[in-house]
Write a structure and sequence with these properties.
Length: 246
């Protein structure tokens, strides 16, 4: 699982699974391009990954500002090949069918589907030309099982699975693999600070391993999919949920 000689772009790198990915990738030798809208938390990650020996480029921006995103991606690519992409960034707008509004739905759609689409459109051609690339999309177990009160999030996470499989079919002959990881309940700041305790307890009760995941447990699977050890895995949809949703 050595990632020396590779350069990984990770979205939502300032906390949670994205931060864990940055640290795991750096520990395995990858150089990093880290994107997040929170300058303070992103700077902490840049410092930590730099101490691990990575060459780190950080970009603070709102990924749904598509014009700014396109300009930053052009700058990043002008400085060298990005051959690993981790589409991790996201947020939630809870609501049932009767309560979710169009603006809320479209904001979730933009970050979870439109942003990964644009990133793949931008970065995939160079990967194909190089004959090697890894794209890992962070979906959710909700993309398989749905969730009451999480209509927008479940819908777009299911869409991300379809996007993963479709791009995998396009890119395989050029040596690029495209896979999706589906985390279950994970100890991120959002889950710790925002999700109500009774809801967390219900999910943990329904999880075979009887606990939530640590971010590093998700990041380790993502790092494996980015490595040469996963060279014959593409279009895969891999639950990392501790048995929740089976």
């Amino acid at each position: 699982m050595n990632l020396h000689g590779h350069r990984a772009l990770i979205t939502g790198a300032g906390q949670g699974i994205g931060r864990a990915c940055a640290e795991v990738f750096a520990s395995r030798g990858a150089d990093l391009v880290l994107l997040d809208k929170n300058a303070e938390t992103l700077e902490e990650v840049v410092k930590k990954t730099g101490q691990l020996g990575a060459e780190v480029t950080s970009v603070v921006l709102d990924l749904t500002d598509f014009e700014a995103l396109s300009k930053e991606l052009a700058r990043v690519q002008s400085r060298g090949l990005v051959d690993i992409l981790v589409n991790n960034a996201g947020f939630d707008r809870p609501g049932t069918l009767s309560k979710i509004d169009r603006q809320g739905f479209e904001s979730v759609l933009a970050i979870h589907l439109t942003v990964p689409l644009l990133l793949m459109q931008c970065l995939l051609p160079a990967m194909r030309s190089a004959g090697w690339g890894r794209i890992i999309n962070v979906s959710s177990i909700y993309g398989l099982i749905g969730a009451k009160g999480e209509l927008a999030y479940s819908t777009v996470k299911a869409g991300l699975i379809g996007l993963t499989k479709s791009v995998a079919k396009e890119a395989g002959l050029d040596g690029v693999t495209v896979n999706a990881v589906l985390p279950g309940l994970t100890r991120t700041p959002t889950i710790e600070n925002v999700m109500a305790a009774p809801y967390k307890e219900r999910i943990i009760k329904d999880t075979s391993l009887g606990r939530m995941a640590e971010p590093e447990e998700i990041a380790n699977v993502i790092a494996f999919l980015a490595s040469d050890g996963a060279s014959f895995i593409t279009a895969a949809v891999i639950p990392v949920s501790g048995g929740w949703g089976i």
